[in-house]
């Protein structure tokens, strides 16, 4: 089940990367709506780019992961400052930003509280991905538990620094739910920054982050899938381990399968 959970998270990230792009385009062309087949092609393109990077650039992946971590920290600071300083839609009070709970915009009543927990759960999904990479970590018995324990405060603090400026400066919820492509973040950035240029700059930071996240979780999911297939723990084990790269002993075919099979 862990392997299938990793694959599911990987596909979700691919969808997030795909959906944010049309919504970013809508900042400049609000009347342009992509059809279903165009969205599907964008999704396949995101999968293909991620696969090519994971399959051909293995020796550079640790550097990519480090760069994405630094990019994440810098992006959070930039977004926090940009939204807080500009605030073209005004600023909400602390009580509204931290405590407002309005169920009138959904048909789920009080259950919307639990739906709201999903982004927080996604923020801490690194816990499972860390354990998936344990076999490739030196001194795993020490480093893996440390990484798992640290990802909770690090992810939680980073998430707060990202979401609180958005909650303080965001436009009315009635406008947010009508955002193009049903994606709130590009719309909020566009309204709060007051110009599509500034919003595009912030969305560029986010799009790079989603690509880096997609690469990282694809690697973790593929390594976990291969490890289970090696031990004949999943159906079709021979398929997942059928190819080994002659130079570095890796299995790029499993990365492609992890990304493409569920789609």
Q: List SSEs in N-to-C order.
A: HHHHHHHHHHHHH
By secondary-structure content and strand pairing, the structural class works out as mainly alpha
Named at the architecture level, the CATH assignment is Up-down Bundle
Sheet-strand content, in percent, reads: under 5%
Task: Write down the CATH topology.
Answer: Amino acid/polyamine transporter I
Taking the alpha carbons of the first and last residues, their distance comes to 18 Å
Helix content percent band: over 70%
* Principal-axes shape call: globular
Whole-number mean pLDDT? 81
The CATH C-level name is Mainly Alpha
CATH superfamily assignment? Amino acid/polyamine transporter I
> What's the number of domains?
1
Low-confidence stretches: none
Please tally the β strands and state the result: 0
SS summary, helix count: 13
Largest sheet: none
Task: Compute the CA-based radius of gyration.
Answer: 20 Å
């Amino acid at each position: 089940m862990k392997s299938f959970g990793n694959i599911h998270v990987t596909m979700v990230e691919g969808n997030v990367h795909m959906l944010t792009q049309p919504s970013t385009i809508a900042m400049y062309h609000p009347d342009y709506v992509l059809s279903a087949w165009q969205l599907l092609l964008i999704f396949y393109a995101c999968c293909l780019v991620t696969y090519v990077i994971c399959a051909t650039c293995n020796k550079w992946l640790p550097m990519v992961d480090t760069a994405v971590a630094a990019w994440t920290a810098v992006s959070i600071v930039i977004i926090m400052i940009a939204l807080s300083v500009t605030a073209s839609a005004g600023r909400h009070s602390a009580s509204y930003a931290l405590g407002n709970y309005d169920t009138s915009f959904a048909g789920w009543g009080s259950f919307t509280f639990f739906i709201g927990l999903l982004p927080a759960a996604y923020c801490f999904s690194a816990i499972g991905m860390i354990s998936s990479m344990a076999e490739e970590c030196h001194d795993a018995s020490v480093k893996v538990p440390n990484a798992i324990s640290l990802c909770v405060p690090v992810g939680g603090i980073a998430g707060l620094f990202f979401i609180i400026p958005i909650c303080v400066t965001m436009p009315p919820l009635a406008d947010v739910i009508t955002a193009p492509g049903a994606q709130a973040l590009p719309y909020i950035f566009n309204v709060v920054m007051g110009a599509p240029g500034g919003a595009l700059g912030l969305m560029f930071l986010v799009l790079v982050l989603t690509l880096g996240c997609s690469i990282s979780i694809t690697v973790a999911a593929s390594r976990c899938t291969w490890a289970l297939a090696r031990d004949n723990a999943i159906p079709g084990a021979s398929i997942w381990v059928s190819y080994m790269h002659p130079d570095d002993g890796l299995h790029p075919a499993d990365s492609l399968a992890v990304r493409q099979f569920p789609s």
